[in-house]
Records
---
Amino acid sequence: MNHLDLLTFARGSALNWALIIFVAGVVLRLFEIFGLSRKTDLAKPRIDSPGSGWRTMLTRSIPPQGMVKRDPVTYIAGYVFHLGLFLAIFFFAPHIEFFRSITGLSWPALPSALVDASVVAAIVALAVLLAHRLNNPVKRLLSTFSDYLAWTVTLLPLLTGYMAYHHLMLEYTLMLALHLFSVELLLVLLPFTKLFHTFSVFVSRWYNGDFFGRKGVAS
Amino acid sequence: MSATLEKGLNAFKEVIDTPIASYFSSCVHCGLCAEACLFYNETGDAKYTPIHKLEPLRRVWKQEYTLLGRLGKLLGLAKPVTDAELTEWEPLVYDSCTMCGRCSMVCPVGNDITYMIRKMREGMSASGHAPEDMKGATKRAVEIGSPMGIKWPAVQAQIKHVQAETGIEVPVDVQGADYLVLMSSMEIINFPEYLSAISRIFKQAGVSWTLAPDAFEATNSGIQIGASDLAREIVSRIVVAAERLKVKCVISPECGHAFTAIRWEGPNLMGKPFGFEVKHILEVLDELRLAGKIKTRGKDKRPLTYHDPCQITRRGGVVEQPRHLLGEIAEDFREMPDAGVMNWCCGGGGGVSANSRAEPLRLEAFKVKKRQIESTGVHTLITACANCRIVMEEGLEHYHMKVEVLGLTELLAEYLVEGE
């Protein structure tokens, strides 16, 4: 199998299978969560605040006062990583082309140099977060194999994407195939690791916001 | 009913609902909840990280309610939750968590960790892994009627005393009164000023109220230890009395968890919405103030600050009322840093103050309160929870601080214009 065949496989059946597992996995995990249901809260809410769950989905992205100072590394590197990854996934011209080919939807891309910079920033942030995880006693205590696995499979697409774009180390076609494989690995593992927070974060934030909202405390 | 591991694990399975599944699914092990926890902050010990306190519950969720976890269990790869592990976790779940709710406010993925601790305690208590002192308090609450073993005659003695002191008759068992007033054992034993203050304020405001001999105790050890069946029994006494007397509103006293027990958990424990309202005393007082029914004269010249009880403020939504009331009677009111919904716990909530084993840790955790008070430079501390009050008095004494602690209701009564 030459490099082109490998890339064809990566773009073809490998991608299809990865997407199938990803979608099925996400649906399964959502069923696992919502299938448990919850009891209706019979206590009369203090104020009728129907939007509080939805608002908290967004407002929880803002750190509470004084918290950044307590753990600046987690907050700053966390923001840089998430933003960098988001820009790289959704605003790199070839990625938009890929999404268009699947969904038919298209949107303006960011200049490649900017995406390149955000990828570098995200990689650096990931490295900082790993060092923090290994050094901070709280994070170290909480960490399991799954945390390091999640870190690795998140790093790989960024790294291979960067190397493919800059024609580093390996031949371009091969590197591009590896980039696709790394994305497929990420897709397959996402529903079954903590990376599922990509989806469940909106559920957990909603419940938190609803809880505090009923009590008249904006969270 | 004897407690067994099996019952505990079943209780774990039973309490896990959609919110909890979403919380465990979302946790990225960032550790930020530790930064919000007074026990972690004051000791620096990572084991006090809030989400870590839930590890046994998390594994039960994973092994029972996720496909991968179940596969792991089937293949014998899953680590089962054992009695030994729960014994190890008992101090984490009870001694080092006051269910203050700060972690739930800061978790970036929105996990309500406090909600999960409350639920986890159901399994801990069902498996026999609750602190002995809390078991005793709960037993007394169920059998005698109060966690401190107080009976109605003790209240009657206090009523007599208050009537002699104020010349105001304390109403008992009045059918159709607007308000049913509850107290906490702490107030009956240590702070008789509360009943006296209520009598005077309500007389001036022309409020129709009553006490009930079968429902004077507001505290609820059942929700602290995590035994919903007992919590229901305790709360049902209040519901029965309120319905019997046909009151419009039940007033939760200056006690934090009592408010959570009656106002928020009560209807859910009973399985039906209440036909009466439940308000914290500060809410009632502020309504009376707004209606112009409380007349005060003069202002307290002492610099003073207010300690927000967690269950009343952060978990209860009574934030502005104490500030309005203090505005009427305090000349030099100073806010502590982090006051309001992000205030630091006194260290003794959620049953911790009833658990003598936790005392050294509680005093260690009090250092944050000490710093907060010191930064305001006051020697008078106002609060609205008798448990916070006694815990802070002990902490202040331990650290040789000359700070007086007062309940807001009694302070308000001091400035009341009476007999005009």
---
Amino acid sequence: MSQLNQIIASLLSDINEAKAKADEASRNLALTYSSDDVLQFFPVPKIGIQNLEVELKYAIEGVEEKPFQTSQSKERLENYVKNFSAETAREIRSEITKVASKNDLYKSLGGNYPDENWEGNVSKLISTQLESLTNPGNDVSKNIQNAKKSLEGDFPQIIPTVMKSAGFAVVPTGKGSFELLGISDNDEVDFRVTKDYRTNQEALNDAKQLSSSIASNKASVSDFKKDAVTKNDLASIKIGNIQLPIEVESKKVGSSQPKAFFETLVTNKAISIKNPTVKQPWVIGRPTPKPKPNSPNTPDRAEIEEDESLREIAKEVLKKRMIQLEAGIGKIAEETKSTSLRVAVDSEKLSKVKPENVMTIKFTLNSQDFTMMDDNSKPSIL
Amino acid sequence: MITPRYISELLGAPMAAIVQAEGIAARATADFIKEVGFTGVSDNIDGDYGTIRNVTFSYERIKADGNTEIAILSVPLLTIIPIPSIQVAEAEIEFDLAMTQPEASPAPKGNSKLGNLSAYKGVQLKAIFAKKPNPSSNSTVTSATSNMNVKIRLAQSELSVGMVQLLNILDSANKEK
């Protein structure tokens, strides 16, 4: 089973090779003639094809549509993927900015997060993952699914996540560090530990110590101050030998005495840690997340809940955009594909085909089709 | 022929055969000239054919004074007998082929686009010689009959520029010996 164009191309090539065999015979004779005293005066036999007719019977077995692989179609796909990647990165950035600005837990990222540089790098990342789509003929759906899966795998690294554990949250900042927040059951910020953590593990360790000290009523607050610039009330919370600076928005303190406010804050925190509100699935309308495979299942780790709101919004954007991508690539593929006939030419197969399905192609070549160019670029007589 | 052969071989073989046949005919002519026209050919391999073979005869010639004399005339034999020399002016080859399932051609090696164009055909065609299909038969093609008819008309052509140059070089080399 081959394509008709391949068959004809092969036949033409065979004709050229056949003529070359005749020419080779002439060349060999010329060498023999030249070394013979009598034959050297004889004309060397040299034949030229005046006319060649081929009549070929074939049967059509099917019509094949293949992507037309030209540099233009590849360039078109490359441009499309490049623009798509840039637009997708822009949309993900815009959605993340919107969600992050509305969610208190992500305020430390800053109002401009993510920046243009982030968008540019994400655009390149998407573009790299979609590179296989720029080769016409590849399985578009499969490649898009693979690229989507791969990009979603990269999201945990490029999209910040808040880790919550027993009334505390470790939040990422726009500077690349982490902060520790005391949060209510409704994820509202109670207080902020004014310390920059290089890793989320460091912050989680402090969270663990704070939580256990507060729960066992071993934490005490002191050093109450007001910061007029940031409009925050400051204090220090002591847990064992460690003293952590904390701050609360002054408007939350209101007219209360700072000492009384912070002590109540710690007391309430102790109650909420000891009696955590269980978010029942039927109340919140969300099933309990199943433990992730390969994730460490230590008791400490099991208590940590990840807030994936930014990652989820990025996934949603990606899902929507990938549907558009498939349609876009499909449209380009549709516009650049070529149709060819799949034919059978072997006589045994043709013998089993109904006579009405056997077709004939005839072509004729004449002497001009075998003309060569000589040194002066003029056609020589063959 | 049962084993399928490449189409290029099936097309090239009769064309090359015509050229070679002409060469054999030319060789026969050359041998005729050497054997009939010259003496001592058999023991010469370096082109010295010996002396030219003449036909000598005598006849009685009448002189101006009315008397007669015996005249002897000697002419080269080659000038009085026709030299057998044949050349194919035109040839027509027609044959029918039954093609077999095309084979995938190996992909070209290297990066040259034009260099491998002729070598890479996508498919390689093979066929066997077969009989023409019977037009009165209902079945268009049977396994024993052909599905490809080829007609080639050939004529003697002048030597190409390259071939003439080659012969000139060889000729000069012979003279310089």
